[in-house]
Amino acid sequence: MTKKEPFFWITVSCGIVIMAFILLPLIEMMTAPSFAMLKETIKDKDVVRSIWLSIYTAGLAALISFVFGTPLAYVLARSDFRGKKLIESIIDLPIVIPHPVVGIAILSVAGKNHWLGELFNQVGIRIMGSVTGIVVVLTFVGMPFYINAVKGGFESISPRLEKVSRSLGASMFSTFFRITFPLAWRSMLVGIVMCSARAISEFGAVVIVAYHPMIAPVMIYERFEAFGLKYSQPVAVWLVFICLTLFLILRILTLHDRGKTA
Q1: Class of domain 35-261
Q2: Angle 27-201-216 from CA coordinates, rounded to 5°
Q3: CA dist 207 → 2, 18, 114, 133, 181 (Å)
Q4: pLDDT truncated to tens, each residue of the chain (262 aa)?
Q5: pTM of the predicted model, to two decimals?
Q6: What are the sequence ranges of the domains in the chain?
Q7: 54, 239 in Cβ contact below 8 A?
Q8: Which 3-state string (H, E, C) describes the chain?
């Protein structure tokens, strides 16, 4: 049996420290509330409503990202043009902008003092304090994750397959939906998972744009401020559990799709 070098033990030690850093707070939070408290919390209609609203709005954000982000991701993966790096940098901006700044930026154009906000007001679209506003915020923060994941999926597909399809007389539209789209479907599922995960965790921007109706992160914050850890932890545990279940289902679908394409 060969003796392990010091570098190996350094890497193992760092790995243990990181795992402990991530898992210890989560395990403590998940095990702190009693089963009775968790049962009582999930019977609370306000809690159920807030968790459902979080899932619903994050799902809509992922759907919007899928519809509008997929064509853009394809163009970025297949084309080289002047200004491409600038566009990619703009897409990544929501990742690095502080969360409250996102909310302020959205209200800057959605408020009554801006022509776009005035237009929304005239057609009956309300951003501040509405489900629509929540969806706008979650799409803003989640779309970069979807576009980057799908862009990587498109880049992994050989352009030769598309060229063969085009040489046989297929249109670009037909080639995309018959060749490229099926091969990139797994990346799209991964992008949906990442977009939904980022969206469902958003707090800072949502508080500014739409404190009410309450999504789960806002309710957790409000209960912590009003009652402390004892009443905020059960809501957090249910949100983590439900989100983990949803994302696990999507991951299983992703692996199932990989098995089909293998």
Answers
A1: mainly alpha
A2: 85
A3: 57, 31, 21, 11, 37
A4: 567 788 989 999 999 999 999 999 888 988 888 888 888 888 999 999 999 999 999 999 999 999 999 999 999 999 998 999 999 999 999 999 999 999 999 999 988 788 888 898 889 888 999 999 999 999 999 999 999 999 999 999 999 999 898 888 888 889 999 999 999 988 998 899 889 989 998 999 999 999 999 999 999 999 999 888 888 999 999 888 887 887 787 777 666 555 554 4
A5: 0.87
A6: 35-261
A7: yes
A8: CCCCCHHHHHHHHHHHHHHHHHHHHHHHHHHCCCHHHHHHHHCCHHHHHHHHHHHHHHHHHHHHHHHHHHHHHHHHHHCCCCCHHHHHHHHHHHHHCCHHHHHHHHHHHHCCCCHHHHHHHHCCCCCCCCHHHHHHHHHHHHHHHHHHHHHHHHHCCCHHHHHHHHHCCCCHHHHHHHHHHHHHHHHHHHHHHHHHHHHHCCCHHHHHHCCCCCCHHHHHHHHHHHHCHHHHHHHHHHHHHHHHHHHHHHHHHHHHHHHHHC
Tokens of 99: 């969360």
